[in-house]
Write a structure and sequence with these properties.
Elements lengths: L6 E3 L19 E5 L20 E4 L2 E3 L5 E5 L3 E6 L3 E6 L6 H7 L2 H10 L2 E3 L1 E6 L2 E6 L6 H10 L3 E4 L3 E4 L7 E3 L4 E5 H6 L6 E3 L7 E5 L10 E12 L6 E5 L1 H5 L8 H6 L3 H14 L2 E7 L5 H12 L1
Parallel strand pairs: 1-2, 2-7, 10-17, 17-19
Antiparallel strand pairs: 3-4, 4-5, 5-6, 6-7, 8-12, 9-10, 9-11, 12-13, 13-17, 14-16, 15-16, 18-19
């Protein structure tokens, strides 16, 4: 299960939670393996029938109907289409965790845009029956804060990529992803967490995939309780909090995961509507945190206080 969608996958996906809905019926998402899948620049792998493509970056192409092709050299090629299907041509063993890193990252963000929901670059936990999200660019401690809040009894909602769903009549909902954290080695050691899998990363450190127990993960979509947009200060001092509303909240476009990709896929109006809905909740804050891990307890207290 992923964001409430039933998944049928030819690839092993140990990160995902088990399906808890009604048995039977079609899968919400199919993940297939096709070892003939090739780049659109080769005009093979069925791309010739999809119309013209536009290059979005090294190894990334968009099809005429919003399909995304992505090739990560030495890892896999991926095709995401129709909001319901991902096709993978692995260059690594099918159970390699690196395959899942991109499948459940950039490819999943593209699938969300295709389905009409917005991916947020955020990690989230459940506190007091609502979703508390830590959003921002990579390296600001989203996953670390989620892990630390979980050590205080919060339940994981999503790590690094959350889904904002505006289609429910009761208002914006944050949908759960899967019970897994990705932490750098030094962060995992500082929090006393041992990683299950060390996954080679594209940054300065590898990431550890940390499985989360069923009891520490929520499968229910939750209303937004707090969206903390993270920033970092090199200077010592207390955590700085600024309420974000109106135009100031609308300017936080970097909380959208793969923003440029979404705009290239024609989802600009959906992104604008989503930012407007987040601003209207009046639950967004900017949280400037010191770089000192010794200030973590104060930061956690601040988040819990803001979450009410």
């Amino acid at each position: 299960m992923l964001f409430g969608w039933r998944v049928r996958s030819a690839l092993p996906l140990p990160d995902l939670a088990d399906w808890v809905g009604v048995d039977g019926g079609a899968a919400g998402l199919q993940i297939l393996i096709d070892r003939t899948l090739a780049s659109p620049s080769d005009r093979t792998g069925g791309w010739s029938a999809l119309g013209p493509t536009t290059e979005q970056g090294p190894g990334a192409y968009l099809g005429a109907e919003g399909q995304l092709f992505l090739r990560i050299p030495g890892v896999a090629s991926y095709l995401v289409e129709g909001g319901s299907r991902m096709t993978v041509n692995p260059e690594l063993p099918e159970d390699a965790p690196e395959l899942r890193t991109f499948l459940l990252g950039s490819c999943l963000a593209a699938l969300c845009f295709q389905r009409g929901v917005v991916p947020l670059h955020a990690s989230g936990v459940e506190i007091g029956g609502g979703a508390v999200l830590m959003a921002g660019d990579s390296g600001l401690g989203k996953s670390s804060l989620a892990a630390a809040l979980m050590q205080q009894g919060a339940r994981l909602l999503s790590d690094d990529l959350c889904v904002l769903d505006l289609r429910e009549p009761e208002g914006p909902l944050i949908r759960p992803a899967f019970p897994r954290l990705r932490l750098c080695d030094d962060t995992a050691r500082a929090l006393g967490i041992r990683g299950a899998e060390a996954v080679p990363g594209r940054g300065p450190q590898d990431k550890h995939h940390i499985p989360v127990s069923a009891e520490a993960f929520t499968v229910q979509p939750l209303p937004l309780r707090l969206l903390a947009v993270l920033g970092r200060s090199a200077s010592p001092g207390p955590v700085r909090v600024t309420r974000l509303s109106g135009v100031l909240a609308m300017r936080q476009r970097h909380v959208i995961h793969r923003l440029e990709l979404g705009e290239a896929m024609g989802c600009g109006p959906l992104i604008f509507k989503s930012l407007a809905a987040l601003a209207a909740t009046e639950k967004m804050v900017e949280l400037i945190r010191p770089d000192d891990l010794e200030e973590l307890p104060a930061l956690l207290r601040t988040i819990r206080s803001l979450a009410g």
